Amino acid sequence: MQMPSGRLSPPSAVTVDAAARLHLGFIDPNASLGRAFGSIGLTIDTHGTRITARHADTMRVEGAASEAQRARIERYLEQLRSAFGGSPVAVEVNEAPRAHTGLGSGTQLALAVGTAYVRLAGRGATTAQIARLLERGARSGIGIHGFDHGGLMVDGGHDANFAAGSARVPPLLFRQPFPDAWRVLLVDDTSREGLHGDEERRGLAALGAFPRALAAHLSHLVLMRILPGIAESDFDAFAKGIGELQQTIGAYFAPVQGGVFSSPAVESVLGAVAAVETAGIGQTSWGPTGFAFLHGERQAERALAVAREASRALPSIACSIATGRNRGANWRAANQEKCGIDAA
Fold first, then answer.
1. What integer is the mean pLDDT of 251-270?
2. Residues 200-246 pLDDT 10s
3. pLDDT score, position 336
4. What is the C-alpha separation between 274 and 307, in angstroms, rounded?
5. What pTM was computed for the model?
6. Pairing of strands 13-28, 330-333
7. What distance in Å separates the CA atoms of residue 41 and residue 49, rounded to the nearest whole number?
8. What residue segments make up the domains of the chain, in order of their start?
9. Does the domain formed by 13-335 have CATH 3.40.50.300?
10. Cα separations (Å) of 191 from 60, 100, 268, 283, 339?
11. 8 A C-beta contact, residue 209 and residue 201
C-alpha cells in the first residue's frame, strides 16, 4: 500500500523520543449515548521510549527487551517498507518501559519506529497515517495525540458505526498544558501485566452495556469539573473529578480485571496515600500501574514516603514521581538539532 507523500532529504540515522501516557479513563465504553469510548489522558516525563534507526544492509532489531518486542518491531518494519519503500533499516531500542503496564508503550514504540522509518526513506507521513498503517488507536486516540502534542487531552471516541480495526483516529477535542507544579505518583506492581491482546478483547466482549446515565454523568464530570480544573489550575476540582471518574469506570471493568484496580497491592498503597494527602487516585488503562495526582512537589515527596512505607513488605511494588509533559515526541537526525515531531 503506497501512501501519497512528498520526498524529503533523508538523513543517515534518526533518533525518536516519545513520552509515556496515562490513560485516565473512558467516557462511554460501548456507545450507550452514540459514540464509543472517548478518552482522557496525560503524557508524562518518565518511562519514555527512545529508538534509533539507521540505514543497514539488512532489516534488524537491536536491544529489544523481549522476543515479543523484537517480533513486533520486525512486523512494523515490514509494513512500513511495503507502504513507503526504501532501503533496509536497523532499529535499536535505546529505552522503553515495561510492556503492558498501562503506559501506552506499544503505541509509542510503533509511532517512534514509523516516524524514524519514513524520515530515513525520505518520505512524509502524518502520525495518524502511521498509526493507521501499524494498527494503533483502535479504541483510544490519547497515545496518538500525545505523540503529536503532549499535555492533558480528551478525544471524542468513535461514532456509532465504529468497528474494531477502524482506520479513523478518534478526534482530539481538548488539549491543555498540565500545570508545572502538579506531580504524579506512579505505583507499579512489577509482578503483573495488564490485560492485552486476545485477553483484552475477550474481556471487553464479556462486559455488559454501560448505563446511559453513567455515560452522561462521566461526560458532565469531564466537561464541567476535570477540564475546568485543569484550565483554572484548580487542583481540588481536578483531583476529585479524576477520582470519581476512575471509581466509576473501574467498577465497570472490575469483573474482568479483578476489581476497581487490577493489582490489590497497588490499591492498598494508593489507599494509604489517599488517607494522608488530597490526591486524585486511579489506575491507568488496564494497569497494573496506579497513580495519585498531587498538588505540588512537597505533597508528592510526602506521598512517595508514605507509598514506600506502605509497600515495605511488597517487593514487587515500584514507586516514582513524574510531572506532566506538555510537548509531543521529538526526533533528531544524526549530527542535527532535535525537532518537533511534526517538523518536516
1. 97
2. 889 888 899 999 999 999 999 999 999 999 999 999 999 999 999 99
3. 63
4. 10
5. 0.92
6. antiparallel
7. 17
8. 13-335
9. no
10. 30, 12, 15, 16, 37
11. no
